[in-house]
Amino acid sequence: MLEYQATENLLKNKTILVTGAGDGIGRAASLAFAAHGATVILLGKTVKKLEAVYDEIEQAGGPQPAIIPLDLKGATEQNYIDMAETIEQQFGHLDGLLHNASLLGVLGPFEHISMSSVEEVMKVNVIAEIMLTKALLPVLKKAPLASLVFTSSGVGRQGRAFWGEYAMSKFATEGMMQSIAHEFQDSNLRTNSINPGATRTSMRANAYPAENPQTLKTPAEIMPTYLYLMGDDSKDINGQQLNAQ
Ligand code: NAP
């Protein structure tokens, strides 16, 4: 899928929600989905960043996006239920959901893990994903073909020293993906995970401050796998762990 070439109208008439849409990989995915015809619902914490992505999509002539300002750290189950109702009223159904927003947390020895940091990472990377998915399943089920994509990591597939907090959250994400994929295997909903691989974003720079970012792929360069998973060419792919690099 690394070489997948998306047709221009791959996502025409599809509505796709992206979390963490204002920066990094989520921003690139939102721009790529819109460039291939999707109406993108931009969810994120920093409104200014979401507005900048909104403007970029409009300037490129893409379908008018929507913005949902939401801090996943503080959001309640009711917030997600209300959001799902609004999406259903406005769009009728949802064709795609990309869980992308995440926190890195603190890297360090397991013996030094701070419970407040673990709780924050689990809230944003896991609990928010559960609540958002649960609330949006009814609108995803209404789509002719729906794609649910979770974002993993290399350490979501093989744990690593000093990456405990983040790794545990990504293993939970993979477990959620597999459980949902199995549960909905004979339905219109497919569920998969994607490991972006080392990508030039601020999260990566925080994890590897001494690394030269120019040696890394940009978010825009890893989009073929994201487009593949959101488009109908992947309709028979379910429960798989994909790599974007
Ligand atoms: P990033 O540049 O740090 O972007 C993260 C996005 O998540 C930002 O838009 C951020 O919004 C949003 N976000 C963070 N906390 C949030 C909250 N509480 N509520 C709402 N939105 C929140 O990270 P990235 O590198 O693009 O990472 C994207 C995904 O890929 C993550 O799941 C990450 O774990 C995964 N990943 C990345 C790499 C890599 O090398 N970059 C490798 C493996 C996996 P604000 O900007 O408003 O804070």
Structure summary:
With 245 residues, this protein is α/β, with parallel strands linked by helices. Helices cover 41% and strands 14% of the residues. The chain has a single domain, classed as 3-Layer(aba) Sandwich (Rossmann fold), CATH 3.40.50.
Largest sheet report: 7 strands, parallel
Poorly predicted segments? none
**Succession of helices and strands:** EHEHEHEHEHEHHE
Bound molecules: NADP nicotinamide-adenine-dinucleotide phosphate
Helical percentage:
40-55%
The CATH fourth-level homologous superfamily: NAD(P)-binding Rossmann-like Domain
**Which structural class fits the helix and strand makeup?**
alpha/beta
Q: Report the CATH topology name.
A: Rossmann fold
Structural commentary:
The protein has 245 residues and is of the alpha/beta class. The chain has a single domain, classed as 3-Layer(aba) Sandwich (Rossmann fold), CATH 3.40.50. The chain is built from seven helices and seven strands. Helix 1 crosses helix 7 and helix 3 runs parallel beside helix 4. Bound molecules: NADP nicotinamide-adenine-dinucleotide phosphate. NADP nicotinamide-adenine-dinucleotide phosphate binds next to helix 1 and helix 6.
